[in-house]
Design brief:
Number of domains: 1
Number of strands: 8
Radius of gyration: 15 Å
Largest sheet: 4 strands, mixed
Shape: globular
Strand content: 25-35%
Number of helices: 3
Structural class: alpha/beta
Order of helices and strands: HEHEEEEHEEE
CATH class: Alpha Beta
CATH topology: 2,3-Dihydroxybiphenyl 1,2-Dioxygenase, domain 1
Helix content: 10-25%
Strand order of the largest sheet: 1-4-3-2
CATH superfamily: 2,3-Dihydroxybiphenyl 1,2-Dioxygenase, domain 1
């Protein structure tokens, strides 16, 4: 599928299995962070929506306002969001991701890159502008 040209109906009908849609206060801020720190690809980014590509998969960003008629809208908290959820990026070098953080002052390093021998990974924990915990990791 050409994600740069897919209309909403075609994209929606092509989705299968488990998909992720992150609600964010600012699509632009979250998209800039994801592309800049983790090298994710952005498709059709706008103030309200973006398709984000990583590792052969896609997920979506939607601005809070796009959910005004959705039952979740009244429950949306201010950041940090997604407490208790880690969004793990198993193909991203944590040291390289953290090195790019100075260009993203709206992100917060929660845990610097460290080795986790118990599960054989080197990982970091970074809070995105919307408050999601992203965990770049690579095998030791």
């Amino acid at each position: 599928m050409d994600y740069d040209k897919a209309d909403a109906v075609s994209y929606g009908q092509a989705l299968r299995g488990l998909t992720v849609n992150l609600l964010v206060p600012s699509v632009a801020a979250e998209a800039r962070f994801l592309a800049g720190v983790f090298g994710m690809r952005l498709f059709q980014p706008s103030a309200e929506f973006a398709i984000v590509g990583y590792g052969g998969q896609t997920f979506q960003l939607h601005a809070d306002a796009t959910y005004a008629a959705h039952p979740l809208h009244a429950l949306l908290p201010a950041p940090p969001r997604g407490l208790g959820i880690e969004l793990r990026l198993h193909d991203t070098d944590p040291d390289a991701a953290v090195a790019r953080l100075p260009d993203h002052p709206d992100a917060l390093l929660l845990q610097p890159p460290s080795d986790k021998p118990g599960h054989g990974l080197r990982e970091a924990v970074i809070l995105s502008p919307a408050g999601y915990a992203w965990v770049p990791s690579r095998p030791l």
